[in-house]
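Late entry, evening session. Most of the bench is empty. Finally got around to the prediction I had been postponing all week. Sequence below, unchanged from the version circulated by S.P.
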Amino acid sequence: MKPPLGVSTYIFSSSTLTLCSPRCPDLLHIKKHKRKMKILYETAMSPLNLMPLYRVWHEVILVILIAYMNQTRMTDYTLAGLSESWVGSLTLNLLCYATVFVPGYFLIWYFKKSKYIERAGSGLVPRLITSCVYGQSYDKLATTDPSHTRSLPPEKTLSAKCMQLSFCFLGLQVSYLTWGVLQEKIMTKEYHNSEGSIGHFKDSQFLVFVNRILAFMLAAMYLTCSRQPRHTAPIYKYSYCSFSNIMSSWCQYEALKYVTFPTQVLAKASKVIPTMIMGKIIASKKYEYYEYVTAVLISIGMTLFLLGSTEAHGTTSSSTTMSGVIILVGYMSFDAFTSNWQGELFTQHKMSSVQMMCGVNLFSCLLTTTSLMQQGTFSLSLQFMLTYPAFFWDSLILSVCSATGQLFIYYTISVFGPVVFIIIMTIRQGLAILLSCFIYSHPVTLMGILGILLVFTAIFLRIYCSHRLKQVQQRKTLPDTTKV
């Protein structure tokens, strides 16, 4: 029996869909059970020149609707396939970040080209645009204001300094050792719930977002509750080191899918090599001979450890190891760019460390949120949190440790200087390797142990030589200052 005139049905193999034209009262019927249905397509209608215009319009709407639903399913399938590999996931992330950077670049170019600052008013929006694009120049600052002068704090006793140093040491160790253990657990272990289902979390970008959003909130609250120097840097300049910071964190999490946590930690200890390279490229820095020697020793030690860990994991494929090494190289490169770019911002604009923390995390939240929403993985990660409550608590503690760790970093450097901070963090890296091997039973060969010892010996040698060189330079300048 032929269908009535105007009835149009289409073959649709996924999530069976029956579409009809407007002549019947039940025109759209969607069945949610999945089974293939074959429906003969037949359209018995008048020629187009005799058909009323509204019938043609309804037919066009039906065709567009089916094409759109097919395209949506194909797009979702393609995105899911791409995100399975680290190369595809990286490509998707970069494309999503480009949707923020490209319009932002043209907006900044337009405001500078049109000399917006010369016609900007005094309202909230003009001030915001001026701060983002131009910043505030130092010649507008009232540096001689007596209200900004502070008396030096009284000299602390030896016992008070020891207590303060112990507080910084324990704060950094507890924060980052806990952060490292949870990081490895989230990216490498399975989660179970009360119903017996098993899940494995894979979205590294969501973990970056969780860490950055809490750090931004803490930095913003600290800025509102404390007196800070006037901010002069264009806000958009934070986006560069924010992007590199996101990418280094993403590589850090993603690498755990291909290499062990001790390998990742030792790669962090070896990041002095790309840091020196980036320093040469960005700031044209010059380095001492001992810095090159220790960099070579660190690279040799890292090579020995990688060879030893490959021997210990006999079943590990060369492609998996190579993927992990490539991601770790990306991590070290992005992290080196971040530190050098932040150093240049500190030198040029004299902002405080908390202002830097707030600006970088602001753009990090913007970029990661945009990417997660565009890829549709934000809701999936939240659903994973609800399905596995243990993952929720692990993510919460991970973000708290990351945020408090950043505050301990800034506080330790401001009180004791960078040398003490580097020593504390080097000890933390060694403890992190031992703790990971103990908790997660990572095998380490004799060659791997020699590589670890060589890396940390080179790091401590570098710290000692740097400290001694500064002392010698200070002694050379003392006679000149006494003669004046």
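Two things to note before I forget:
The mean pLDDT is 75.
The longest helix spans residues 446-483.
Will write this up properly tomorrow.
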